[in-house]
């Protein structure tokens, strides 16, 4: 790592020893899981580079943007509209954390039986290892599940810039009204932060930029419907994960290049996994970097993942925002309508999600569904039961997995997953 990077991290107040340890774990996992794959598309070299510089060049870019007066906003959830931040000349970065860190410290703030994702978010702050978090001029917390809501009460005093957004839990007219007013309040807060007034033109342009990114991800998703599938689930997951950190225009261009390559592979009947290997749809909790454990186990056990029903996947990107409104208010309405369709398990009832999983299993020609719930995540582990029942009535085999970020259960998971895959064959 360059001296310039080290001095940048020092300047951000990172704990350099702990940060080195994190980069080592990240680098080793990436080599063992990603670089060990065979027949990866050449275009994935872009994502390899992005990951090798995820705490380096990308942070430098963000700090350069800050020097030029641009603000950085961090978010933990796909309900925070990137359109609004871009329209006010701010950059949105995902902060969702996918690794355990500073757990002893974390458990002074949160009970042990809190989901790994929430613990990780707090651990990255307490361990001072996340340059995105330390670069952010505003961090947005959202009232989704109870765990996150209460954790923001502990995180707030550790940050000087936490903004809490309320969210509905029911898809009713009142729920939509709440979301609309919270997005309005967020728009005002972002304008205050950036001193930039959002105009019809800037909001429309921002919507188009984010739509283009989502369309490239839709294109990737569509190409995974081919049999044999031209890209691994691990690589497709990585593209979705990087979409939360990268410059949106550059990301869109790079992903579209990979899609061009995948189209050629499909035309040549070239796949990453033999046709006989079962096709798996993953459904459930989001997988943030570097949470690659489960897909890695699945894809080294004789199956291939063809889709993710997840916020780092189709739940997060599936709908576009209508950009035809002629006023800021109309565009804000369209943004509300788009996000109100996100079928997170915090909603009750949430039958849309059950229908969507069934639809995805059919569309992606999945032989089976693996439902991934993070241990202690009530919304998703509870919803896993109706999901399993709904799939059962349609004759779609499924497997319910509950796990965390540790590797202790990797052997046991592999045994269960191999048995499931064998059964699908
Ligand atoms: S699962 Fe729910 S709380 Fe988590 S990122 Fe998605 S929408 Fe937000
Ligand atoms: S994984 Fe579950 S418990 Fe954890 S933050 Fe997401 S919804 Fe909340």
From TrEMBL:
> What name has this protein been given in UniProt?
HgdB2
Q: Which organism is it from?
A: Desulforapulum autotrophicum (strain ATCC 43914 / DSM 3382 / VKM B-1955 / HRM2) (Desulfobacterium autotrophicum)
Keywords in alphabetical order: Lyase
Among InterPro entries, the record links this protein to: FldB/FldC_alpha/beta (IPR010327), YjiM-like (IPR047678)
Q: Which family does it belong to?
A: Belongs to the FldB/FldC dehydratase alpha/beta subunit family.
Q: Report whether Lyase shows up as a keyword of the record.
A: yes
Q: Which domain of life is it from?
A: Bacteria
The EC number on file is 4.2.1.-
Q: Which residues cross the membrane?
A: none
Lineage of source species: Bacteria, Pseudomonadati, Thermodesulfobacteriota, Desulfobacteria, Desulfobacterales
GO terms for MF? lyase activity
